[in-house]
Every structure is written in C-alpha cells, then in structure tokens.
Please model this.
Amino acid sequence: MRSPYPFLFFFLAAQPCLRFLIAQPFDYPTAAPSTFWTNNLSLKHNVTYPDGSMVRAILLRSNPAFFGPSFAAGFFCNAACDAFLFAVFIVYTNSGAEITNPMIGSPQVVWSANRDRPVRENATLHFTEDGNLVLRDADSTIVWSTNTSGQSVLGLNITASGNLLLFDRQNASIWQSFDHPTDSLVPGQTLREGQRLIANISTTNWTRGQFYLTVLADGLKAFVDSSPLQAYYVNEVSGLKAKNKSAYVTFTNGSLAIFTLFTKPDVPDENIILPSASSVQYMRLESDGHLKVYEWRTTGWDIVDDVMKLYPDNCAYPTVCGEYGICSNNGQCSCPSETNSSSNYFKQIDDRHPNLGCSSVIPLSCQSLQDHQLLALENVTYFSSLALENIISLSSVAEESCKQTCLKNCSCKAAIFQYEQNTSDGYCFLPSQLFSLMNNQPTVTHYNSNLYLKIQIVPRTTNKTLTSSTSRKKIMGVGAILGFTIGALFVLFLIVGIFVLFNRKKNSHMEEEDQFDQIPGMPTRFSFEELKVATGNFCKKLGEGGFGSVFEGDLGDMRVAVKRLDGIGQGKKEFLAEVETIGSIHHICLVRLIGFCAERSYRLLVYEYMCNGSLDKWIFYRNQDVALDWQTRRKIITHIAKALSYLHEECRQRIAHLDIKPQNILLDDNFNAKVSDFGLAKMIDRDQSHVMTRMRGTPGYLAPEWLTSKITEKVDIYSFGVVVMEIVCGRKNLDYSQSEESIHLISLLQEKIKEDKLLDLIDNHGNDMHLHREEVNEIMQLAMWCLQIDSNKRPFMSIVVKILEGAMNVETCLDYNFVTTTPMMLSNMNHLDASRPQSASLLSGPR
Ligand SMILES: *[C@@H]1O[C@H](CO)[C@@H](O)[C@H](O)[C@H]1NC(C)=O
Ligand SMILES: *[C@@H]1O[C@H](CO)[C@@H](O)[C@H](O)[C@H]1NC(C)=O
Ligand SMILES: *[C@@H]1O[C@H](CO)[C@@H](O)[C@H](O)[C@H]1NC(C)=O
Ligand SMILES: *[C@@H]1O[C@H](CO)[C@@H](O)[C@H](O)[C@H]1NC(C)=O
Ligand SMILES: *[C@@H]1O[C@H](CO)[C@@H](O)[C@H](O)[C@H]1NC(C)=O
Ligand SMILES: *[C@@H]1O[C@H](CO)[C@@H](O)[C@H](O)[C@H]1NC(C)=O
Ligand SMILES: *[C@@H]1O[C@H](CO)[C@@H](O)[C@H](O)[C@H]1NC(C)=O
Ligand SMILES: *[C@@H]1O[C@H](CO)[C@@H](O)[C@H](O)[C@H]1NC(C)=O
Ligand SMILES: *[C@@H]1O[C@H](CO)[C@@H](O)[C@H](O)[C@H]1NC(C)=O
Ligand SMILES: *[C@@H]1O[C@H](CO)[C@@H](O)[C@H](O)[C@H]1NC(C)=O
Ligand SMILES: *[C@@H]1O[C@H](CO)[C@@H](O)[C@H](O)[C@H]1NC(C)=O
Ligand SMILES: CC(=O)N[C@H]1CO[C@H](CO)[C@@H](O)[C@@H]1O
Model:
C-alpha cells in the first residue's frame, strides 16, 4: 500500500538533522533506582552533530528560561562514533529545553566514567535496585561501577553545576563525579589534596596520558608521570604544612588570579566567584600539558586563558620540541649537538616537523655500557625544577659522582646537576625519559645547572679488521687456483660491463628516483601495496572527478584521503616534479600533501583527511538542510582568502591556483577551510604573466580574461568573488534548476545592485544570515570588488584578508557591470562544459 504522506516521508528522510526539532520538551535531571538504559537509538534524546559526534542524553538539567549551554549526562561518542563514553557534557538547549544542534559548538565532555575503556553500541547503564550504578559493555563485561550497593541510595541527580551524584534520604551525596575528576574542572569544582586532573594521551585518544595536575600538601603542581617524576609547574604555598592545613584549589571565574589556593578552615566557599550565568566555562588539562580555560561566547568555544604561565615563554612545557629537542626562546626546535664539533649524535625524527623531537643517530644499547659517554651541553637547561623532594635522584653529591651514577645505570638518559647554594656539591637528577630541553639565554639563567646527555659511541676496535686479515691468509693458502680465479673474474667483468652498458638508460632513471626519495622535507613515498592496505582495497570512495577518485584510508592512526589518478599520460618525471612543488607548500589554510605513490602506471596522492568534506555540500543543500551560520561562513571566506594570499604573495614562487571553486575547498571538524588541489596551479614569474594556450578551470568560476588568454593569479581573485557570492547566497553561480533569468548568479547580482535590492540574494535558509545583514552586505561589496571585469581593478588577496580582518575598507568606486558579454560568456561556458580540457593537469579534479 502506498503511504498517504509521501511528501512528509521524503521531508523527514531527506532532512535527518531536523528531526530533533520536533522532539518533546525535555528536562530530566534525576533518576530513581531500578532503571536500565541501553546505548542504542531508542534513548530518546539522541542528537548527531555536524562533526559526527553524538549525544544520547539520559539526564539533563536545563534552565527553561535560558537558551544556551546546559549540563547533561549520558552516552557520548566523537567523530567516528565507534566508541562511547558514559559522560557529563555541556550541550545547547533552547528555551523548550530540547537539546539543539547549532552548527557551532559540539558537545563538550567535562567528565567521563570510562575514558580508558570506551564501550560500544548496545552497552548498558544499570542503576540497580540497591543503589549501584554499573556500566557494562555490549558483551556485558563490567566496565565501571560506583560501588555504592547497600548505601541507601535514593536517586541519581545531575546538578546545575555539572556534578553527577548519588544521594540518600537526607539529600547527602553518597558518590559524586566531582570527587573523580578526569581532565576538566567546571566552575565551583574543587580539586582536593591527592586528586589529579590527568590529560588525554593525545588529542585524539581519551586514554590517560603522562601529564597530570595535582594538589599536594604544599601546593599545586603539574608533573610528567615518568620515573623519576618530572615537575613542570610548581606553585608552592608556604606554611601550609606547619599550620597542619590542607590545600585545595577551586575553579572560579576563569583567570589565574582567581584560581587560588585556599586553606580549608579559613575561606568559606561563598568567597568563590563564579562566572555569570550567561557565560559558561570549563578548564581542561590538554595533552600537551597546558591548562586552558574555555568559554562559550555566542559564536562558539573560545580559549580565554592558558592558566599555568611558564617561564621562559612556552619552552618549559615538556613536549614542545619532542624528546631531546631544544626549544629556543622564539619557539624554534633544534637537536642537541656538541660545541665546536661537527659530529652529530642526534637527528630530527621528521625534517618537516622539528617539534616532533630528535633521536640518537646510534641508539643507546644496554648491551654495550662501555660505549656510553656523556655529552656536555652548554647553555641548555631542563624544565624540571630539581630541588623538589619527590623528583630528585641524589642530593649533596659531587658533579662527577652524579655523572658516574648515570653511566652505570642503563636506564639513565641524562645527568642534570645543580649546585646547592654555597657548596661544591649539589642535586643530581637522572631521568629515564628525556623530554624537551631549553636554550638558556644569558638573560634568563634561571637554573645554574649542568646538563649531560648520554650517547652511544661507535666502538674504536671493530671485528672488521680481524676478519679481513684472516681471509687474506686463506687466499694465500689456496694460491693454486688463483690464476683460474683471475681469468674467471676477467670474463665476469666483461659480461657485467656489457650488461651495465645496455642498462645504463634504465639505471639512470632509477637513480633519479632514488635521489628524489632523499630530498629532505618531501612527502613520503608509499608503495601501491601500502596504499591498497591503507584504503582497504579502495573500498570507501569520498568523491570522483575527471582525473580520478578519492578514497578514505588509514595510515596508522592517521586518517587520510587517497586520490587515485586514472588514465594519466604524464611521465613519472613530470609527476614527481609536481609532487615536489606541492609537497613544498605549507600553510594552515592549504590541504597538506602527506605522500604519494608512483609505481608502474599507478599515480596516487595522499592528502590529510578533512572530515566535513567539501564546501559545496554545505552551501548548496544537496544532501542536508543544515544551514551554516554567518560566523562560520565568514570564517570559511577568511580562510580561503588567507590561502590565496599565501599562494599569490607569500610563497617563494608565485602560484596561481586556477581552479578555485567550492569543490576544492575542504572543511575540517571545526569548519576551518583549507584549499586543496594545486594541480592546476602553474608557476608564474614574479613580474610577468604567461600566455596560456589552453583554457583551464571550471565553468562558472572563470574570469573574463580567460577569453583573451592573458592569465595571471588575478583569475583566482575573480573565482574567489564567485565563491563568496555562492557562500552568501547559498546557491551555485550557474544553476540550471532556476528560472531562465536567474540561472546566472553574477548576472542577477548586477541587476539587484542596480535596483538596490542586494539583500534579496542572501541565503534564506535559517535566520542567522539576515540577522547579520549589515556584515553580509559588506562582504558582498568585497565580492563585487573581486568580480571587477578589469583584472587590474581587483584587490590583491592580502588586501582582501585585511578587509576581512577589519583593518581596511572596501573600495567604494566600483564598476557594477560584471557581465558585459553575458550571452557570449554563457554560451562559451556551456561549450566549455562539454569539451573540458582533460589534460590541463593530472593533479586536479573534484573530490
Ligand atoms: C534498544 O534496547 C532496548 C533494550 O535492550 C530494546 O528494547 C530496544 O528495542 C532497542 N532499540 C533499538 C532501536 O535497537
Ligand atoms: C544491538 O542490539 C540489537 C538487538 O537489540 C542488534 O540488532 C544490533 O545489531 C546490535 N548492534 C550492535 C552494533 O551490536
Ligand atoms: C569499584 O570497585 C572496583 C573493584 O573493587 C574498582 O576497580 C573500581 O575502581 C571501583 N569504582 C569506583 C568508581 O571507585
Ligand atoms: C539535585 O541537584 C539540584 C541542582 O544542584 C539541587 O537543587 C537538588 O536539590 C538536587 N536534588 C537532590 C534530590 O539532591
Ligand atoms: C531533598 O531535595 C529535594 C529536591 O530539592 C527536596 O524536595 C527535599 O525536600 C529534600 N529533602 C531533604 C530531606 O532535605
Ligand atoms: C581527548 O581525546 C578525545 C578523543 O579523541 C578528544 O575528543 C578530546 O578533544 C581530547 N581532549 C584533549 C584535551 O585533547
Ligand atoms: C589510545 O591509546 C591507547 C594507549 O596507547 C591504545 O591502547 C588505544 O588503542 C588508543 N585508542 C585509539 C582509539 O587510538
Ligand atoms: C594535623 O591534623 C590532623 C587531623 O586534623 C591530626 O590527626 C594530626 O595529628 C595533626 N598533625 C599535627 C602535626 O598537628
Ligand atoms: C569574570 O572574569 C572576566 C574577565 O576577567 C570579567 O570580565 C567578568 O566580569 C568576571 N565575571 C564575574 C561574574 O566576576
Ligand atoms: C653560552 O653562554 C655564554 C654567555 O652568554 C657565551 O659566552 C657562550 O658563547 C655560550 N656558549 C654557546 C655554546 O653558545
Ligand atoms: C667481535 O669480537 C669479539 C672478540 O673476538 C667478540 O666477543 C664479539 O662478539 C665480536 N662482535 C661481533 C659483532 O662480531
Ligand atoms: C531526540 C531524538 O532525536 N530522538 C531520536 C533518536 O533516534 C530515534 C531513532 O532514530 C528517533 O526515532 C528519535 O526521534
């Protein structure tokens, strides 16, 4: 039977993100024992966010009068959504107390029960009859429990400040999440003596890492958990021990000044200043050891403070320059080397990322302790304060005995010695794991310490000489067959000689490739087999274009996009040259080329993965009805402008992209835009434009001068203008589904500006664009400046960036004729559509 409501069905199916809007009002802050929740879609308040994260709330405490952040408890998963936490998170609710789904700001997790052991779909949370809260994975193994059976628990409550608690008949707390902090604190939350905030192991993994912040009897300290402990932040409060008081810290209104140490009996909790109700904050220990304060500002979560200020600058964070990396005051990383010597004992782990640290050229081996030496580093210090009782290895020893102790102990990686005042002895610190080092500027000299790194030297006597002398004896002993051997060798040489001659051409080709492999800072070369494995035999296609297809893949824990180029006529040499060019271009707003493969006829490129795909999906409403808000659109426009400004004006070689369009602009999980596909980019000399013989690019985005064939990077500025109009208007420039007079957006723009009805063009999906119509109008003026037919009148991209940053105004005297040759241009474009030059460049193509 046919559904009586086919249209309604279509509407719901095509717009999954709208479904939550019709959910029931929801404010459900408590639960009673004997309740059972299954982590599946029948949990009522499931919301999926644009970045792929999902919440399935069980408890929510919202302020019905208030549109904005509220605390909720339930299941949470981020982007990939294959692993769930039972967590407390901050979500957005509207005044009807539904969880809403704004484009900005995904849920922020401030506490979780099972960060080391995420659970799967169908996991269960059981609030048992006897008052225990138990989390079981889908296979019913117990993952976590509050262990509160039989303690007369009456209910479960999420408080307005984000505390998840089990309470009894007197409303007293039996168990509360505030007593088991993870990596975050919310306003009003206290960290007591012995409690720790433990950072993630990495930005992409919840597992507890090495960094932690804790309150000890004598103050607040941050450590790296290695043996011995290493302290990178110490805020000691004197006199606490003597007064037999214990310290605790409470997160108040955001800044360091208010984040103070109190002594329990003296300062009542009322003195704590909390942020105002309209501002929501939380504090989080990051996986790089920073303690940051996040605040909700109408447009999203901003970092408002970095609480532990370390000196000098940020060089004192243990992982700034990776293991063994030396951080200079300007934040540059380098590897340790011997003063006045050319020997190198350390090399960078990755030439392109000096902040990943250094490794020994010859690895330390415990089998050859006799070949260990100490390398003295001048003017280099270590972050860890040495004079702390819980980290020091030896005290009151001589420098020499500190060094000897290190040499005798295989796990010791360095000896750090600091003189105690007025003596010739000092503290000795012998770390078994060495983090970043700091260049000690003469003006800083905050530690009077000497630092020695353990290195492995090449043994002086090798077994090589021994074996060569014994083999010589052997040869003399079998002199009888020597003559024959020489004759045979001669014949062999002859054969080899001929062979080499015939293969010279082939060999030189191989040498050339090998040389290519050795260029430092180049993208990694992969074998076809490696990429086949990484992409699961090219099973998940992200996109397809004229030049090939793009597939999702995983290299280790890194997700990548692998572009497989099909039917390429170009030779290996040209391909490698293009890869080299692309690989040498780095900018935060450009998609990074990680690697490539050139094997037999295969040509593949490996790019960083951008999880929100290309911009066209978000502005042309093909698959989803989620409208980007104005701030996000503005951010995207700014990022594109920065990318082009870099390519045009800051790169060593001036680079024109020549195919700027939404399909070539990719978005990461935070809607940061990056420009991809420099395949069409051709180097243009700094002072003259080149005449191009073939038309390139995509219809709809081509500047008028393509017809006259005098091409400069100004064509990108025109295309940028078109893209800005598309972002603002939420439609394609050439949209054949429109009525005939509206097919071409830029022609429409020309009409509307003459009628003074520019605002008619603004995207009317959602209200947000119209709320900001002043700003939107300004950006349209900027777009019109970029769309000037006379390419000399268009602004440089650096000027565009300045305007977007509010540092300059748009030129007022603009020519509002954008399409002098309307019919001709359009028919030309249609013609082009059919005969699109396929050989323009093999590296381009939509994703
Ligand atoms: C979710 O789990 C509950 C309890 O096991 C079950 O009754 C329900 O059918 C499940 N729903 C879905 C959509 O799987
Ligand atoms: C969850 O359980 C349902 C049955 O309740 C089952 O159909 C489904 O496949 C399970 N999902 C997963 C991911 O195991
Ligand atoms: C509950 O008890 C188990 C086993 O004794 C323990 O491993 C776990 O850490 C306890 N849970 C909490 C929240 O204290
Ligand atoms: C639950 O938390 C709210 C907000 O903090 C508090 O007002 C209320 O008294 C609590 N309820 C119980 C039963 O503890
Ligand atoms: C516990 O809190 C609830 C809700 O705030 C309140 O109604 C109740 O009277 C409180 N009970 C006691 C014993 O304080
Ligand atoms: C911790 O890891 C999770 C999971 O990848 C991530 O979402 C979160 O942002 C990370 N937190 C920090 C402080 O890096
Ligand atoms: C997170 O890190 C732990 C410890 O290194 C590792 O065992 C686990 O597989 C990682 N999880 C993910 C999702 O990468
Ligand atoms: C410090 O206080 C604790 C309990 O408050 C007490 O047991 C201990 O004896 C006190 N120590 C000193 C040195 O006064
Ligand atoms: C919190 O701190 C900020 C920045 O210092 C300040 O502007 C704001 O007024 C403070 N809020 C309250 C409630 O004190
Ligand atoms: C170390 O610092 C001193 C004092 O500034 C300077 O004279 C010396 O050259 C520096 N040594 C090295 C190797 O930079
Ligand atoms: C080198 O020679 C020494 C002494 O003959 C021997 O003990 C050692 O195993 C040899 N090492 C290697 C790598 O052959
Ligand atoms: C609030 C919400 O969006 N609930 C949805 C959770 O998922 C189920 C199944 O997809 C929907 O039916 C609910 O509407």
Remarks:
- The pocket of 2-acetamido-2-deoxy-beta-D-glucopyranose (ligand 3) is lined by residues 145-147 (CB under 6 Å).
- The chain has four domains: 1-180, 313-456, 509-608, 616-834.
- The chain has 15 helices and 47 strands.
